[in-house]
Specification:
Layout: H1 2-129, E1 130-136, H2 139-151, E2 157-166, E3 184-193, H3 206-230, H4 238-265, H5 272-275
Antiparallel strand pairs: 1-3, 2-3
Helix pairs in contact: 3-4
Length: 290
């Protein structure tokens, strides 16, 4: 009886174990199915993320393209505005330069006419004062000219002389504005009328020439200092070009007035008794009265 019951219990336990095993197999199979489903879900989730990322990327690309078009449009607008402003500025500058050029041409025309008139008057006036020429430069002839100066009517006239024709062997380039009497072949004599209030051939006395040269020397120094301080090699500068032009004119005037001063110094500025050795025979009186 006990054995039968034990066998019966064992069969029941085997049945229970079998049911448990079947349930475990079922659960395992179901778990594997869940795992496969989870794997599919993960794969689907990954695909969805990729799609979402691609959408975000496409959206960003679209926004960037829109911003690029807006920037290109703004850049074009700014370029047109700047170009228009530059065109307007250049047109105004062109109008100003044209007006200045016309004004300069007008002034230059008047200046040319005045210079021609002045040159003509100087030649006419100089021809009236240019009295003696081609006098050989010898001690005797120089003495004669100085004697003429001594006896000329000083209330009405002023007698001056200058060198004429450069002697042989001298370089004419050193005397482009005239040579001293010691370097001249001949003597040229001028007689100025004091009624015109001109006491030199050029219309200036020695003191006036020194004052003019002093001003010209200062102008020369200022121009050279300005050019040295502000000139940049390789760069165009209208102010520097104008200053160079002024400096060139200043140097020409300096050479001219230096030559004039030289002529004035050679034109008998000392008393006649210091320049001419006059011998008066004994027993005779001089006919010259002071």
């Amino acid at each position: 009886m006990k054995v039968s019951k034990l066998i019966h219990d064992l069969h029941e336990q085997l049945e229970e174990n079998k049911s448990a095993i079947d349930e475990c197999v079922f659960l395992r199979n179901e778990n594997e199915g869940f795992l496969e489903e989870i794997k599919e879900l993960k794969k689907e989730n990954t695909d969805l993320r990729k799609i979402q990322d691609q959408d975000d990327l496409n959206r960003q690309i679209t926004n960037l393209r829109i911003k690029q078009k807006e920037l290109e449009k703004e850049n074009k607008r700014l370029y047109q505005a700047c170009h228009l402003a530059e065109v307007i500025r250049l047109r105004k500058e062109n109008v100003r330069l044209v007006a200045q050029l016309e004004n300069d041409e007008h002034n230059v025309g008047h200046l040319d006419e005045k210079m021609k008139r002045l040159d003509y008057l100087e030649k006419v006036f100089a021809s009236n004062r240019y009295v003696f020429t081609d006098i050989p430069n010898t001690p005797e002839n120089l003495k004669m000219v100085k004697m003429m100066k001594k006896y000329v009517n000083k209330r009405r006239y002023n007698l001056r002389w200058r060198g004429q024709y450069l002697v042989d062997g001298e370089n004419w380039k050193q005397y482009q504005y005239g040579q001293p009497l010691s370097k001249s072949k001949c003597i040229r004599v001028y007689i100025d009328s004091l009624t015109h209030a001109i006491d030199t051939v050029e219309g200036f006395n020695a003191e006036e020439v020194d004052v003019i040269l002093g001003g010209l020397y200062k102008e020369e120094d200022q121009s050279e200092e300005f050019i040295t301080s502000f000139e940049v090699k390789g760069e165009e500068n209208a102010e520097i070009d104008e200053e160079k032009r002024i400096l060139n004119v200043t140097k020409q005037l300096i050479n001219y007035f230096q030559s004039m001063r030289l002529h004035l110094q050679n034109s008998a500025s000392k008393p006649i008794k210091d320049l001419v050795n006059i011998v008066i025979p004994k027993g005779e009186k001089s006919c010259h009265t002071e």
